[in-house]
Amino acid sequence: MRVLFIGDIVGRPGRRAVGALLPTLRSELSADFVIANGENAAGGMGITADVTRELLAVGIDVITTGNHVWRNKGVREIIDQEPRLLRPDNYPPGDPGAGTGLFPLPDGRRVGVLNLCGRTFMEPIDCPFQAAEREVPVLRAETPVVVVDMHAEATSEKQAMAWMLDGQVSAVVGTHTHVETADERVMPRGTGYITDVGMTGPERSVLGMNGDLIVTHFRSRMPVKFEVAEGRVALCAVALEIDDRSGKANEIHRIRRCVDESADIEARAARGGERG
């Protein structure tokens, strides 16, 4: 089985890049299944019902999220009704939505997906390690192919999760920092791993946001209104080749594709500075 995992989609530029690049990319890789982190897909922070539907319509099979999942009230309109939109499983019991899912392919094979959120340098929530110990056996009982999105700030926390789950899941893919790391590998017991898959957003930016505004914020410590940057967009992803029967990863490699959005800037300005 070939699984494509797309890094954090940032705002409208990121969504447009996915729409432009994913059909060809999916065909080139013969990808059976596509996962994308969408927690920054609406205006650069959070996700909404409309954005969820837009991303699913362009060929993403499952959308994972992270610590910004509740940023927009609109997400609550869809997260209980749309099983392909996940939130971190280690949010408190009773929160809307689900943190895991079992997703069928047309040929009958199934993919289990587990969405987790780290706690180091992030808001205090339930333990992701205990959540993984609870949920992975449940998914493994239904399918050998299980992919984990570990949405976390600390590289050590992501690596620790991978070591704990090595041999139990097909892949642990790190998200959240928006910077693609060069440490992709198959671990000793067969789990594919990368510390951070990167982002799908504007290259000339600070984590997808207008760099001038972020510099002003760091220099002055005064609050600024963050805005999604414009220009050329990079889609960062990893492609996984997974053995259908064992669930072990045979291969993981990084992907980076670009699309130039600059031709759209004047048209968007004419429509009133359309952003998000």
UniProtKB/TrEMBL annotation:
Fe cation 1 binds at D8, E39, N40, H178. The keyword Hydrolase applies. InterPro entries: Metallo-depent_PP-like, YmdB-like. Keywords: Hydrolase, Iron, Metal-binding. Fe cation 2 binds at E39, N67, H151, H176. One of its GO terms (molecular function) is 2',3'-cyclic-nucleotide 3'-phosphodiesterase activity. SUPFAM superfamilies: Metallo-dependent phosphatases. The active site is at H68 (proton donor). Pfam families: YmdB (PF13277). The keyword Amino-acid biosynthesis does not apply. Belongs to the YmdB-like family. This is Metallophosphoesterase.
